[in-house]
Amino acid sequence: MKIRLEVDDQANEPEITIRANSPQVANALATAFQNATPQYQQIALRQRGQNYQIALQDILFFEATDHQVMAHTADQVLIRASAYTS
After folding, report:
1. Three-class SS of residue 14?
2. Is 45 in contact with 77 (CB distance < 8 Å)?
3. What is the pLDDT of residue 86?
4. So what's the pLDDT on residue 37?
5. pLDDT, tens digit, for every residue of 19-75?
6. CA separation for the pair 50, 30 (Å, rounded)
7. What is the pLDDT of residues 71-85, one digit of tens each?
8. Which residues make Cβ contacts (< 8 Å) with residue 26, sequence separation at least 6?
9. Exposure pattern of 5-43 as b/e (b: 16+ CB <10 Å)?
10. Residue 39 has what pLDDT?
11. How far is CA 55 from CA 7, 22, 38, 43, 73, in A?
């Protein structure tokens, strides 16, 4: 396996390109990278009608009340989605 790293100070986020000789190898490598970088995993949340992408590492805890799941960060509370539809 070859590994090549490039530093690009203009990049907005890390980018990984995987070249493999089979889809199984490519999928295994992609899964390994995704699991190894939890700081880049995000969850879609709402607050006052606006949608936000919040990094999982910024969420302190979740709270479920009145069929809604709320995510608490250090300075705000955002709604995940309705747990049940009526």
Report:
1. coil
2. no
3. 41
4. 65
5. 888 888 888 888 887 777 655 678 888 888 888 888 888 899 998 888 788 899 999
6. 31
7. 999 998 988 754 444
8. 18, 19, 20
9. eeeeeeeeeeeeeeeeeeeeeeeeeeeeeeeeeeeeeee
10. 59
11. 23, 31, 9, 6, 10
Indicate the pTM of the whole model: 0.49
Compute the residue count for the chain.
Answer: 86
Sign of CA dihedral 81, 43, 34, 26: positive
The pLDDT value recorded for residue 4 is 80
Sign for the CA dihedral angle at 8, 13, 19, 25 comes to positive
Alpha-carbon gap, residue 45 to 29, rounded angstroms: 29
Nearby residues of 61 by Cβ (< 8 Å), 6 or more positions away: 71, 72
Let me know: does 71 contact 80? Beta carbons within 8 Å. yes
Q: Which residue has the tokens 């995000």?
A: 42
**The token pair that represents 68 in the structure block:** 């809604």
Cα atoms in the 13 Å half-sphere on the side-chain side of 3: 3
